[in-house]
Specification:
heterodimer; A: 399 residues; alpha+beta; 3 domains; 14 helices; B: alpha+beta; 3-stranded antiparallel β-sheet; 4 helices
Amino acid sequence: MPRPFLSRRSLSKTRSLIRNLVRKGRVECDLDAEVRSYLEMLVAEKIARGLDPAEAQRQARLELGGVDRVKESVREVRMGARLESIWQDIRYAVRVLRKSPAFTAVAVSTIALGIGANTAVFSVFNTVLLRPLPYENANQIVAIWEKRLRENWARGPVSAPDFLDWRGLAKTLSSVALYETTRLSVTQGGEAERVPGARVTAGFFEALHVQPRLGRTFQIAEEDTGHRQVAILTYETWQGRFGGDPRILDRAVLVNDEPFQIVGVLPEGFRYPFAAACDLFVPIRFTADQRRFRGIHSFGGVARVRDGVTLRQARAEMDVISKQLERQNPDSNKGHAGELIPLHEELAGGLKPTLLVLLGAVSLVILIACANVANLLLARASVRERRPFARRWDAAGRG
Amino acid sequence: MPTELLKGTLDLLILRTLSLSPNHGLGIARRIEQMTNRTFDVKPGSLFPALHRLEEQGWVSAEWGESEAHRRAKFYRLTKAGRRQVETETANWRRIADAMALAIDATS
C-alpha cells in the first residue's frame, strides 16, 4: 500500500494546525466551553444522585481539579503535538535530503533560481512602482505636457507663452513650473567641467515641496534675461565641489563663462526627478522670441495640485484654459491642450508594462521551478513505495 | 479501589469507547469506569489532554452537539484512521497482556 502524498492524518494535522494558529481565540473559547460543559454535566449528575446543589458544585470542582489546570494541560498537549510533528517533519526532510545529495542539489538550485529571479525583478518593481517618490505629498505632483491632437502627440513639450498663461490662470494648481534638463559648463580654478544641471522656472522647488537648506529658491523676476544670473546648488555639490563653504551664498560660480550668484543650497539627498543626476540649477530665462511665439515648444512642465482638488478637477480646468487659448491663438494652438499626468505615472509609466510582463514571467518561472521539483518528488515517491511497510507503520506509530 | 491508569492505556480505552458510539467527555469517562468495573478512575486532568492529543493525531474528530440531558456538549467520534488505530493498538495490547500473563504464570 503506497503512502499517499497527503495522508488523511497529515491533512487533519494541517487542519488542526491552521485552526490553532489562525483562530487561536476561537480554540481557547472552545476549550473553555468544553471544560465548562463537562463541569455542568458533572454537577447535574451529582444532583441527580441526590446531592444538594452547593455540595454537588463543590465535589464536581474537586473532581475536575481546577478548570485552568485542565485547560493548561490540554494546551501543553496541543503545543507539544505540534512541535513534535514539526520537528519530526524536519528530521525526516533532512534525513531524506542527506541521503540523495544529487536530488537535493537539483531541487535547491531549481528553487533558488526561481526565487533569485523573483527577488531581482521584484526589487526593481518595488523601487520603480511601489515605493513612493521622495517628495512630500508626492501624489499631488503632476507633470504637464502639451497634447497636440493634430499631430497625435500625447506628450509634447510646452511653449513658454502657454506656460505663462497656465501659471496666470490655473486656480487648481499651486505651483506651475517648467524645467529643462541640460549640461552646464562649470569653471573652477581655471578648469571647465561639464556637469549635469537643469534650468527651471520659479515655482519648480515649490511644486516638489522642497525647502532650501540655505538661501532661497528662484523668483519670477529671475526668468527675465535682464536679471542678474543666479544659481542653486545641491547639498552634495556644495559639500563636494565647494567644500561645504559656510559663506557659499556670498560666492559666485562660473557657469558657461558667466558669473552666477549662488542664492540657495538644496537639502541633503534631494533627487531631481527628471534625470539620474543634477548638480546645479539655474533659472530658465525666457527670450523675447520665446515669450512671443507660441509655436516654440521646448520645456517640460511640472505642477502641484492644490490641497482638496482632485486630479479630475485640475484636468477639467486645464481643458477650459486650453480651449480658451485655442480660441485666442488659433494659428499656434489649434488642437493643443495642457495634459496633466501624475508624476508617479510620468516617471514609471513607460516601464510599467515591461515590469509587469517581467514580473509575470518570473512568477511563471518559479511556478515552473515548483512543478519541476514536484515532478522530481513524484519520481522519488515511486522509489519510496518499495520500502517495507513496517517502517512506515513504525514512523506513524510514533506520531 | 480505583487505580491510576497505565500510560498509554487511556488512549486505547477512549478509542474503544468511541468505537461503540460517539460520546462527550463525561460520557467517555463514565463508560470507561463502567467497562472496567470501576477499576479505572478517569480524571478530567488526564481525560482532556488525551482527547485533544487523539484529535491532533487525527484519530478522533470533535463537534458540538446536545447531550441526552439536552445540554450542549462536545462530542468525539472516531475517524477512519482512528478505526485502524483501534485495531492495531488492540492487537498490540493483547500481545502485551498475554505476554504478561504468561510471565506471571510462569513465575508464580
